Amino acid sequence: MEKKDLEGELERRIDEVSNNSDIPRMGKKDFIIAAIFALVCLAGVILGGIFL
Amino acid sequence: MSKKSNTTEKQIEKEALFGTLPVLKKERKYGFIDALLVLSGYCIATWSYTQGSYLATLVGFKQLLIGAFLAALFMLLVYQLPVILSVRYGIDIWIWLRSVFGRKGVNVLTIAIIIVNFPWYAVCCELFADSMENLLALFGVSLFPGGHLLLSLSCVVLGTIIAYRGIGSITWTTRILVPLLLLVGVVVVIVGFSSASISDIMNYVPQVEEGTDMTINYVLSIEANFAFVITLVGGMAEIPRLSKSEKGGYYAGVFGQGIAGSFFVVVGAVMAIAMQKVTGTMSDDPTLMMATLATPILGLSSLLLVAFANVGTQAVGSYIYGVMLKTTFPKTSYRILILVLGAYVGILCVWGKIIEYFGSFLTIGALVYAPLAALLFVDFFLIRKMKIDLKSAFNLKGHTSYEYTKGFNIVGAICFVLGFGFSLLIYDPIKSVIHIKWLFMLTPTGASFLFTGILYYLLNQIPGIRRYMRKDTSVAYDSKPFDRYKVPPRQNLFLTPIIWLLCKLSLKPYGLKIDKVNMEGIKPPFLVLGSHHSFYDFYVSPLALKPYRANYISELEGFEYYGEWIYRQVGCLGTRKFINDRALLVNIKKVIERGDIMVIYPEARYANVGTNSKLDMSVAKLAKHLKVPVVVLNMKGNYLLSPIWNLKPRKGARLHATLECVLTAEDTQKKDLNEVYDILSKKLTYDEYQYQRESGIIIDDDFRAEGLEKPLYRCMCCKKEFSMKTEGATIKCTNCGATFEMDTHGTLIRKDKEGSVYVPDWYEWERKELEGEIDDGKYSLDTKVRVEALPNAVNFINCGEGHLVHNMNGFDLTYKDHRSHEMITLHFNPASTKSIHTEYNYRDKFGECVTLSTLDDTLFLYPIEEGFSATKIQFATEYLAEKAAKK
Questions:
Q1: C or N terminus of chain A, fewer CB within 10 Å?
Q2: Is B635 within 8 Å of B657 (Cβ atoms)?
Q3: Report field, pTM of the whole predicted structure over 0.80
Q4: ipTM at complex level
Q5: CA-CA-CA-CA torsion for B394, B398, B399, B401, nearest 10 degrees?
Q6: What are the tens digits of pLDDT across the range B778-805?
Q7: Cβ-defined contact of A23 to B218 (cutoff 8 Å)
Q8: What fold is seen in the domain B779-886?
């Protein structure tokens, strides 16, 4: 593919993914779950250092 | 070059180019399970055993389990979060890293990462040599001196040959490699658990020297786990960008590394513990364990599996990094790059101490990756709020948001280097010396991650840096409206003397004199109404009001320029010009009620030609409403010093200010509205050129007329619009040739004929001419404009091209709204727009502009076509408002 064609293809793809709203997104709830999960892991690491 | 090598080169070029293109939704392959399986395969390699046995030298098995799983999962849950952007746009991390490091900065980073990361492949080669040595030992063959090195180098050569041959060989290698590694893992688990009991392993504690601080060992083990997972940051987005959902892509990365990868680390630890139990010696070599603990046939076949798994890993690694380098150096042959990578690993093998320094190497890797991961995290979530300018990230023509300083983002680079240095301040990974113990307890990786992230965030709060960083606000912006109701704080008491000092220093060359009239006994609260000539008004006002501090009304663009925090500390209230802002009235009242001084510049715009604008009746109403003394600050010389049409200071300017109490609190109540208005109007009248002449101020700067064509846009001789040009001290009509020179007292002297003109007279003549056109129904403006919205103190938003119509019915502005993303038309009727804000060269951006405001946006409108004059639009706006008020 020529450079010009590649740039056209790239621009087309950028426009498409920029408007690609139907890829299921992480919602607020998902971020909260991930944060809780991370805190539980961190607590485990700290407690493991203290008690084991 | 042969036909075959040409084909390989083309295939690699295609991979390097197309491998970076955004992946479309229809091309996504992976659900969560698929992505998890692929990433699990990506995370397991024979070096997992090295990591496991290294951890077993530091802590007991239970702590080892906690570190391998919980510490790894914690770090992954945090640093993998930004991969959701990769899923959303189908792009690799290396593309959007350009927002953090700049186009060329990413190239430098690529090389740094390869230097830091490639020693993993030297570990593979060492393991390969160990395997082969054990294999030969099974047959009673002992190696000659240098034989081990020869074996490790042969792994380099074999891996490099496979990578050199290109994609076809790599595809086959990958297909064989992952099952091989899984098979090895299964064998190691079986052999390990059948050689030592579960209780032996569970109760294992490492043999350490007396006096060893086990807490330090525990932190070191956590650090090793953080480092182990964070070093995969470079490849973390390759699979997620092919995922069908953000959650799937994210958790595949977290569990692929945190569960599957960690499982193999634990398997390595079990193996090492079992070996110690049986032989008394700990080993990180799975082949040695096979040879020692398993049956000869199983041992032999496992040895071969491990040996060739290492060759495969080396080949795949060379290929991945070769393609990465090809993206960075597109003109260099892929095969040359593969040979360079092979030579680098070869040198590490000759050095021969990579296993001995495994912990140090891990930590050094993490020293690089921790700042990188922190920058990604903060940039993505806190700076760009999960939006990036893809066209700039891909360097499309005309999109330069991430070009920064010649392709390098200096801010990102400084944070990266300081983050790297910060962890070295805490811990020396080469000599294993702890420098700052309390920070070491956070682990060097954790501390560096936090330090870099916080530093990057704080730097981005500094307005100048934020503007440098955020050139992508056309796509990645903050639309949240400014909080107009937020109560303004009093001017910061500690800042007040600094403000006085800075103001005094700034005005020192211009000999400011301040007269105070009727000010005896006048104490806050009171209202100050100031004339408005230039930015120097803000230097004069605090000095005139000394020893009191005050609150000032400011347009939001000042908040954006200097930063909201500092502006509020200075005591500023934010608003937009020429709108009915009820919140502003509420806050003005609060300032007065708490006993402070409220300073207002009622003209709301710098003087175009050094004369005052007409005072609005609402100012008199406000004075009556507040029931406090009204003080007028009439400043002189500020316009002469830095006129709006050419802000460059004139060295001859001299400043004078009169602070006069013009109405007591009782006066505001006793006198009727018109009386109050007349007094205020009279006291706020000024004429800068008259002041110049009367004070004998000589302004002889060569450039003294440059820019004057902005307010004087129409030729006074031939009446042609937009024909005036200025150069040095002269203003000339390109249509009729009439030429004027500004003398050192500010008067325009006709050069080609007798006569002179006074600048404010020319300006008012233009106004009258335009008013005549409006009365004749001839005025109308219909033009394309560039629209930038300022919704808050954070950013301007490029709204692209808009369409502005101005006629007898007021303004109609059509543009793409940054909130709804739809084309909208705003209508401003003449009665609601008493005037309009004008700028002649706003921040050196796109020349002159006017602004129209709603309660939540200030819209800066720059001309795209000929025929746009901010002065003319202002005259028309004021006259149409006047006509509308008479109806």
A1: N
A2: yes
A3: no
A4: 0.93
A5: 130
A6: 999 999 999 999 999 988 998 999 999 9
A7: no
A8: PH-domain like (2.30.29)
Left (φ > 0), alpha (ψ -120 to 50) or beta: where does B788 sit?
beta
Do the strands B526-530 and B630-636 form a parallel or antiparallel pair, or are they unpaired?
parallel
Residue in A with minimal Cα distance to B75: A38
* Amino acid identity, position B206: P
> Which residue type occupies B428?
D
Query: Which of A12, A45, A52 is the best residue to mutate to test the B interface, defined by the most B CB atoms within 10 Å of its own CB?
Result: A45
Residues on chain B touching A30 (C-beta within 8 angstroms): 247
Does residue A17 lie within any of the structural domains?
Answer: no
What letter would DSSP give residue B492?
P
Interface test with A, best of B62, B390, B440 (most A CBs within 10 A): B390
* Chain A CB within 8 Å of residue B95 CB: no
Q: Mention every residue, 6+ apart, whose C-beta is less than 8 A from residue B805.
A: B780, B781, B782, B811, B812, B813
Among A39, A21, A30, CA closest to B249? A30
Name the H helices within B379-409: 390-393
Q: Is residue A2 part of a domain?
A: no
Q: B197-203: long-range contacts (C-beta < 8 A, 24 or more apart)? A: B200/B273, B200/B277, B201/B61, B201/B270, B201/B273, B201/B274, B202/B61, B202/B62, B203/B60, B203/B61
CATH of domain B3-469: 1.10.4160.10
Report the domain count for chain A: 1
> Is A48 within a domain?
yes
**Residue A13 is assigned to a structural domain of this protein:** no
Beta strand pairing status for B630-636 and B748-750?
A: unpaired
Q: What residue numbers bound the domain in which A41 lies?
A: 25-52
Overall size of chain A counted in residues = 52
More confident residue, B1 or B175: B175
Amino acid at B157: V
Query: What are the residue boundaries of the structural domains of chain B, listed by start?
Result: 3-469, 495-692, 701-743+747-770, 779-886
B22: contact with A, CB 8 A cutoff: yes
- Say what the pLDDT of residue B471 is: 85
